[in-house]
Specification:
Structural class: alpha/beta
Number of strands: 9
Mean pLDDT: 84
Radius of gyration: 21 Å
Largest sheet: 5 strands, mixed
Number of helices: 11
Order of helices and strands: EHHEHEHEHEHHEHEHEHEH
Strand order of the largest sheet: 1-5-4-2-3
């Protein structure tokens, strides 16, 4: 569902700074922020493209698939960035001030974008792609279930059609093709996990980010190094001791980390529990261009292949 944000700004000094930054950008670019300007820009020229901003790299990958060559897509978060600790930069304010539509994850992951949208002035069109996704309590990492990615894709398709009606058939066709890919991806993950003996399908992760993956694909959650949805929390000494004991008693084969996470603590735990540590999964963001995790589909396939090899 396409929405607009026209809430007033009552914020502290950080918000005032963003307002100041936006005014500098707006004076330079002359950009408008009304919803109607998006459609006008596209229908005015056969070669015109939507300017789209997404908060996360996963959403960027999905939008690129659905929009095809009808849009230029920019993600605020970059590969390797941590959305839990993110602070907007002047360039992010500029990108949103010049965009036709903004896509966000929601579920508390990227609320920092709301104040940027507010300071862009007028009615900024934005889309919460998690609408309609069954949510695990407090867990924003919805993309780890491919069926959730399918819902996200449909939300993206419907929003693009609303913003740019003349290209509706392009977006429908692209979305249909991508949904077929995602259906194949979902089956691939199911089939690969099924090759792991049931008593070995146990996961220990860095933080509680893989819950959707574990639930969807029939794995067992043993524990996480950081007992939190956020990667910037810190475990206590008792948390670490309890996890080591669990890993030993459950005969866990491996501890899994995202590639963007400092592996030092995990390596210590792995050494004490006598299990291997896999440090290369993609989690909160996709990988750099040219890496196996540069796209959403690539990330999910790479993660699955890596998990299956480590658990066998």
């Amino acid at each position: 569902m396409l929405r607009t944000n026209n809430a007033g700004g009552q914020r502290g000094s950080g918000l005032l700074l963003l307002i100041f930054l936006f005014l500098l950008v707006a004076c330079d670019s002359g950009a408008t922020t009304t919803p109607g300007s998006a459609t006008a820009a596209v229908t005015g020229s056969a070669d015109a493209k939507l300017s789209i901003v997404t908060t996360t790299t996963q959403i960027r990958s999905m939008v690129e698939e659905v929009a095809g060559n009808r849009a230029k897509v920019r993600s605020i978060l970059t590969p390797g960035a941590d959305p839990h600790e993110f602070e907007p930069k002047p360039s992010d304010v500029q990108a949103i001030s010049q965009s036709d539509v903004v896509f966000k994850n929601g579920v508390g992951l990227d609320n920092w974008v709301d104040k940027i949208i507010i300071n862009a002035g007028g009615n900024r069109p934005f889309v919460v792609v998690s609408n309609g996704v069954p949510i695990r309590k407090g867990d924003p990492h919805i993309w780890f279930d491919v069926t959730s990615a399918m819902t996200m894709t449909r939300n993206i398709r419907d929003a693009l059609i609303q913003v740019d009606p003349p290209d509706a058939e392009v977006y429908r066709s692209n979305a249909d093709a991508y949904l077929t890919k995602l259906n194949t991806l979902d089956k691939y993950i199911m089939d690969q996990i099924a090759t792991v003996p049931p008593d070995q399908r146990k996961m220990v992760t860095n933080h509680d980010a893989f819950g959707y993956y574990i639930d969807r694909y029939g794995l067992t959650y043993v524990g996480s190094i950081i007992p939190s949805m956020s990667s910037d929390a810190q475990p206590s000494a008792q948390d670490v001791a309890d996890l080591i004991q669990k890993v030993r008693s459950e005969h866990v084969k491996a501890i899994f980390l995202e590639s963007s996470i400092n592996p030092k603590l995990a390596q210590t735990i792995g050494g004490d529990a006598h299990v291997k540590v896999v440090e290369t999964l993609y989690g909160d963001t996709l990988g750099e261009p040219g890496t196996p995790g540069a796209t959403y589909e690539g990330m999910m396939r790479y993660n699955t292949d890596t998990i299956v090899r480590a658990l066998k």
